[in-house]
Every structure is written in C-alpha cells, then in structure tokens.
Amino acid sequence: MSLSPKDVLNKNKNLKKRVDVEKINLDDVTIDDLRFNGKNYERFINLQSLLENVSACQISDAYNALFRRPGTIAKIKPVNNQRVWGKIFTAETSSDDWGTSALAIDSAEEGDILFFKVDSEDKAIWGELASSCARDNGIKATVIYGSARDLDALLYMDYPIFASNFCPNAGSALGLGTLNEPIDIEGTAVNPGDFFFGDETGIVVIPQELFSKVMSQTLHVKIKEAGIIDDITCGKTLAEIVGLK
Predict the structure, then answer these.
(1) What does the pLDDT look like over 103-150, one tens digit per residue?
(2) What's the pLDDT score for residue 233?
(3) So where are the chain's domains?
(4) Staple partner for 121: which of 147, 163, 185, 215, CB 3.0–4.6 Å?
C-alpha cells in the first residue's frame, strides 16, 4: 500500500491535542477548519478545543449578541442527549418517503450532519437501520424536522439523533425528495454547508458565512461565564454580578 503526502502529515499530528480555553486562538479560523486537511493543524486543534467546551446555549447567546438571531428551532429536541457539531447536508421529503433518507446517507460526506425537513410527523423517515448505516458511513448525526422511530435502539446507540417527534410507523422507500438544497424551517433558513451544533438542551444553526464571527463571540461568552462562576465561588450573588444590587 502506497502512502500519500497527506498520510505522512497525518501520521505526525496529534489530533487529540487540546488547548486550555484561556489560550484558544481563533485567528483566521473558518468553517472548513472543522475538518483536518493536513495543513490546518493549529486552527483545527483550537476550534475543537472550543467546541468541546461550549454548549448550544452559549453559541445561541453569541449569535444573538452579534446578529439578534437565536439560531434555534425550538421544536427539534435531542432524542438521545448526545453532543455533536459539523457541516449540514440537507434533505427534504414527505413522511411517506423514507427512501430519501437512504439516498442522503449515500450522498453525504464523512463528517456531515444530515438535516431533514419532512412535510408531516405522521410517519417516521428514520430509525435504527438508517442510524447504523449512517454511522458506519462516517456521518456524525441526524436531525429531523419530522418523526423518528425505534427509540428502544436509538436511546442507547452511539449516534446522535434530534427530531421533532417520534412514532412507530413508516412509509415506503420512494426516494422522491430533494438533497442538499436550501430549506426553511419555522422561518429559519438552513442551507447546505451551514454549521450545526446540538446537545442536551437543543440545536443551533449558524450560517456558514457568519461562522467565524460567531465562534469568536462564543469564546468570549465562555470566558465571561467562567469569570462569573469564579465570582459566585468567591461569595458574590448573581444579582450583584449583573448589577441588580
């Protein structure tokens, strides 16, 4: 087996290295730095160090502070309470059609987040088999504005799922939906390549063109909240810290 130059670079890089929050440097970081490409080691490590230490709440606060938008879709909830982030691959279909889910799995790239808009919650378009296949293909998570099923398996599977509902019945393998086109959910535009972050509290979608600014503001929010916690530990009340007393 021959080695490419990228293989050699990867071999010598510790991709599990992390930087203390206070030392994170996000200069020149872009959404492309969510993946290590052999040339972006420092940016990749600093970005991973941030994302492993923040929450959907903090990212939403940062987005709202900058652009007066929360980035949330309240109806979509975590199914199995796992944290995940990445670039979005969109799909839109009807609840009768779980075949589009199978097509999306084959079309998305490794590291993508599948994000489905479904026309109703009457039938599930995702379940245990789709989750197993997506996970094995390197997809990071699935988000459904619609229904999932097989919760007996999904609750314990090492694959993050977010959905607006769940039910036991499913439709057919029609494959009539659209893939990787812009979608709109409750007034929130979700475009292919946008940033997704989800955890136990909920989800946040950030337009890819605003990613760098929102990440820098998220770091600011994280450091500020850490300082507030230190003040509380030292005996101050929250009312005092925020200037209500």
Answers:
(1) 999 999 999 999 999 999 999 999 999 999 999 999 999 999 999 999
(2) 77
(3) 19-68+207-237, 77-205
(4) 147
Cα(226)–Cα(223) distance, rounded to whole angstroms?
5
Which CATH superfamily, name and number, covers 77-205? Ribonuclease E inhibitor RraA/RraA-like (3.50.30.40)
Query: Are the CB atoms for 145 and 117 separated by under 8 Å?
Result: yes
Pairwise CA distance, residues 4 & 211, whole Å:
31
Output DSSP code: residue 111.
Answer: T
Name the token pair of 79.
């199914």
SS (H, E, C) 136-191: HCCCCEEEEEEEECCHHHHCCCCCCEEEEEECCCECECCCCCEECCCEEECCEEEC
Cα–Cα distance between 229 and 64 in angstroms, integer? 22
The answer to whether 155 and 163 have CB atoms below 8 angstroms apart is no
Which pair of structure tokens corresponds to residue 106?
Answer: 């084959």
Write out pLDDT tens, residues 202-243.
Answer: 999 999 999 999 999 999 999 988 776 666 777 777 776 677
CB distance 171 to 146 below 8 Å = no
161 neighbors 134 (Cβ within 8 angstroms): no
Q: What are the residues whose beta carbons fall under 8 Å from the beta carbon of 21, sequence distance 6 or more?
A: 49, 50, 53, 219, 222, 223, 226
What's the pTM value of the predicted model, to 2 decimals?
Answer: 0.92
115 conformational bin, left if phi > 0, alpha if psi -120 to 50, beta if neither: beta
